[in-house]
Amino acid sequence: MKARLSLTPPLIALILAVLLFFAGGLINPDFVNPAQATNIVRLAAFLGIIAAGQTLVIISGGEGIDLSVGAVVTMGAILTFRLTGGDNNLIWLGLLASCAAGIVIGVINGLGVALLRIPPLVMTLGMTGVVQGTILVLTQGEMIGATPSLMREWIANPLVLGIPGVIFIWAIVGIGMWILLERTTYGKRLFAIGVNRTVARFSGVRVQWIVVLTYMLSGLLAGFGGFILLGFSQTVFLQLGNNYLFPSIAAVVVGGTLLSGGKGSYWGTMSGALVLTLIDSLLRAAGLEQAYQLIVFGVILLLLIVVYGRQRSLRQ
Amino acid sequence: MALTLSARSLVKRYGGVIALRDGSLDIQSGEVVALVGANGSGKSTLSKIITGAVVPNGGQLLLDGTPIQFPNPQAARKRGIAVVYQELSLIPDMTIAENIWLAHEPLRFGLAVHRGALRDRTKALLSLFAGTISPDLTPDTPVTALPPDERQVVEILKAISSDPRLIILDEATASLDTNQVNRLFELVKTWKAAGKAVIIITHRMEEIFRVADRATVLRSGESVGTVTLADTDEKTIVSMMIEGAITPEQIRIPTTALESHVRLDVKRLSGGRLHDVSFALHDGELLGLGGLQGQGQVDLLLALFGLIPHSGEMILNGKPVHFRHAADAMKQQVAYVPGDRGSEGLLLIRSILENMQLPSWSKYGAVHNRKAARKDALTSAADLQMVYASLDDPVSSLSGGNAQKVVIGKWLLRQPKLLLLGDPTKGVDVGAKGEFYALLRQLTEAGTAILFYSSDDSELLGLCSRVLVFHEGSIRAELSGENLTRANLVAASMGTAHERH
Amino acid sequence: MNAIRTRLQRFFSRQTYVISLILLIVVVAINYSFQNNLFELRIINNNLRTMMPLMILAVGQAIVVIGGGVDLSVGTMVSMINTLLVTWITPESTGGDIALAFALACGIGILGGALNGFSVAFLRLQPIVTTYATSFIFSGVALLVLPRPGGSLPRDLVTFYRSTPLDIPLAFYVIGILILFWILLRSTRYAQYLFAIGSSSDAAYSTGVPVRMVRVSTYVWSGLFAALAAVALTLSTGSGQANIGDDMTLNSVVAVVLGGIALRGGGGNVIGEVIGVIILGVIRNIIFFAEVPTWSQTLVNALVILAALAAPGVIRLFRRIIKR
What we know:
The structure holds 3 protein chains of 3 kinds. Chain B is of the alpha/beta class. Helices cover 32% and strands 25% of the residues of chain B. The longest helix of chain B is centred in the middle third of the chain and has 16 residues. Chain C is mostly helical. Helices cover 77% and strands 0% of the residues of chain C.
C-alpha cells in the first residue's frame, strides 16, 4: 500500500489547528506553552468524544443530524452524579446508566427517522425536549448527588507524564472509531447508505436497520460523553451539555465529513474538535463575547454548507 | 395558424455516445406523422429536440421556414408545440383543473385566478373524453386520486389546453384503455381536420396504421426513410427498422442451452409493471429478455431480487422462495447487476475496493481481514482485465467499461448461481462489450444461470439461444431456434406477433 | 360506494384541517372540564393573546412548508427583532417613532428571509441545515443588541395589545386578518405556483413555473411574518430578551403539522395552521389546569409535540402494514 500525502480536509484542519495555536501566541505570548497545549487537547477531548456519534450520524446521510446530543450529555452527567452520589464504588453504575439512557434515546431517534420518516433534524430536536423534560422529572429541579473523587483523578487530572486521563480515553475512542468505520461491515455499510441508499439496498444492505443502529451509537456515545464530562465539570446543571451541541456538528464538518453523507472520518472530527476549541479559546483570549462567537459559528457553518452541501440542480 | 416543421440532419451526442446521427423529419398542419424505431434508434431524442427538452449538437430545426433552437420546453410551447409525456409531469397534490392550467391560469383583474372559468374550461376539456373516464371526475378531483389511465388523459388535456399547433404524443397511449385510445384517435382526426399537426410515437404497430398518414423510420440514430402508410404494410416497416443493422453474427458467441437442472422456475409472477409472467431457466443457460424499453423486463429482475413487492410463485433450485429484501436473495446466491451504474450500481465517491466488496464484507470477520479482502478484489479485477491505478481510487475515476467491470465484479466475488443482468452494456464501448460477452460465455460454461435483459437486439440475437419478448408487462413471445430472428423480435416488441410456445 | 369514497378522499385532501378541527374540539372540551370559565370573554382574550405571536409566526412557516421547505431560523429571528424593537422604542416614543420601528422591523425580517431564500434556492443548500446555520447569526445579533434582558414600552401600546375593541378580543381581529390574507393569497396564480413547487418541483419546472423565485419568496414571507410575530411578542411581554423567541421555532413546525400541513410539502393551508396553534395553546392550558406536577410539565408538553410529529408517520406505517 502506497501512502500518498495529499491535502485532505482532515489534514487541512490539523494544520489549521497548529497555526491557530501559534496565532494565539501573537495575541498573548503566554498562550504558547506545553501546559496550555495539553489543556487545549484536554478541552478538545470532551468535544471530540461527544462529536463521535455525530460523525456517524452525519456520515449516514439522508440529512442525518443529531440535535439531541446536548441533552443526552446532560442526562448522562446528571445520572452519574445522582446514582453514584460521590461513591467511588458506584462509578460503574453511573457509567452503565448514562450509556443505557443514551442507547434508549438513540433508538427512539433512529426509529422515528427510519420508520416514521420524520426529518432527522426535527425528530432529534423534538427528542431534545423529551430528554430535558425527563431530566426535570427525575431531578425535580434539585441537583442532588456528587462526583466520585476517582473520576476527577482518572479523567480531568494528570494521570501519566502530566497527561490527563481524558486524553487517553479520547485516544481509545479514536482507535475504536477508526476500527468501526474502516474495519467493520457496519462501517462499510454506513458509508454506503450515506452515499446512495438505492445502491446500498441493491447490494443487500438493510438501510433502515443501519440508520437505527447509527442513531443508537450516537446516543450511546453522547451518554458516555456526559459521564466523562462530569469528571471534568464536577457539578451538573440543566444546560451542561447544550454548549457542546453546535460545536459537535461544526467539528464534524470542519473535519471534512460531508454534510450530505457518505464521506468522512473520525480523525477529521478530532482535528475539527481541536480547531473549534482553539477558536473558542482565542475568542476568549481576545475578549470577544458570546454574541460574536455565535455569529462566527453561524457564518462558518453557512460557508461549510456552501462548500460541502450543495444539492443537484433542477435542470439536468 | 398553419405550421410547417422540418428537422434536418439533427445530431445529439452524450459524451462519446451518439444518440442521434442524422435525425430528419417533416410535418405540416393537417398531418399525422408516426415516428418509428427500435430501441436506441433515437426517436425519443429527436422528439425531445423538437420539444426543447434537449439541445442538439448539430443539424437544423426549421419552424415555419426559419431556423430555430428552443432553450427549454416553455419556449417550444410558446411557439405552439406541446408534448404529452409518458413520464407524467403532473403535480400530484393539485386538482385536475389546477394541473391542466398551471402557469397559464385564466385570471380575473389580471391577478386572481378565475376559478369559474378554470372549472368551465376544464369541464369542456374533460367532456372530450366523456364516456371513457369515470363520470365522477370533476375539475376539482385531486390528481392523486386518479388511476394511471385517467392521469394520462389529464396529461393529454394539459397539452392541448394551450391550443397548440403541433401535438406530440410520446407513448401517450401506453396506459390508456381501449375506449380511451379510440377516443384519443377520434380527437386526433378532429385536430387534423382543424389544421393541427400531430406526431405520434408508440410501441403498438396497429396504432400507427390507424391514425398516421406517414411514418418516418429511424434506425441507429438515422432517419432511414418516410413511407405513406396507405401504400405500405407492417412487414415493410419492420424491415426498414432492422435492415442493415449490425449483424448478430459479429458478436455471435454460441451458448448452448443445456437441458440440465432447472435453476429457476417462475409461475404467474406479478408486481410493478409485470403481469402473470411464467418461465423456467436452466443452469448454464443465458436467457434473453427482449422488447422495447420499459415493458416490464427490469421489474422482473427487481422482483426476482426481492427489490419490489410481488406475487406469484418463484421456485429456486427446487425450493419455493419469496424474497422481501435483496439480502434474502443474496443468501440464495442470486445476484443482480443493474443497468444504471451511476444511480443503482456504484458508490461513485467511494473506492474501487469498497465498491467491489460492498455485498461481501461480512465474510471477512468482525474486524475485517483487510488483506484477504484486498487480495480477493485484486484477483477478481485481474480476472476481469480491469484497468485501474489503485484499488483505493474512487470508482468515479474509471472509464465506463471498467466501471461496469466493478459492478459485475462485486457480484462475481460472491460466485452467484443465478445472475440477473439489467441492460449491462448500456454506455459501454465496443472493446469492453467484447470482453463482457466472453465473460458471459465463461460463466454459462461454469454452469451459472443468467437472465439477460438487453435493449440491444443484436446482443440478444448473438448471445442467447432463447429470448422472451416483453410487451406491456407480459411475455408476448418466446423465440428460439429458427424463430429467433430480428424480424420476429421487432414484430413481437411492437405487439404484432401473438404466439407463445 | 366507490363514489362516496372518492368524494370523501377529495374532501379530506382539500380540507386538510378537518381532522385538526376535530382534535381542537376534543382538546377544548377537555380543557373546559378542568376550567369552567374557559369561555368567558376575559379568559378567551387572555388565552388567545398569548398564542398570537406563534399564530402569526407560523403563517410564514406554513407557507415555507407548503412550498416544500422548512425554516428553522424563525424563532431566533423573532428574538433578534424583539431586541431591536425594545432598543428602538422607549416609553417616550411617539406614534411616528413606533410606526417607523415597526416598518424597520418588517424590513429586517424580509432581509433575513431573503438571505435564507437565496441560500436555499440559488445556492441550492439544504433548507434544514441552512436555516439552522442562519439561526446562529440571528441569535448572535440578538445577543449583541441586547446582552441583558430589559427595555420597556409606552403604556398605551401595552394596553392596546390587551384591548377588546367593540367587546371583541384583539386576537379575533388578527385571526380574521390572517385568514383574509390567506384567502386573498390563495386566489392568486402565485399560490398555484407555491403548491406546485411544494408537491413536485420537477414537474413544476417542466411546466414553466419559476421555481427558484417562488422558493425565495416563501422564505421572504417567513421573514416578514417573523417580524410581525416579534412585534406581537414585544407588545405582549413589554420587554426584550435575546433568546425570547428561540423556542418558537420548533413550536411553529409542530403547529403546522398539527394543522394538517404535511412536512413533505404541497398541501395545507393557514386556517389549519391557526387551529394548530390554538391546539398547542389549549394543550398547555390543560397541562396547567390538570395539575400535572410542575416538574413534569416540560416532559408532557414535549411528548405531545413528539406525538404530533410522529402521527403522520405512524398512520403511514399502519397503512403499509394493512396493505400487506
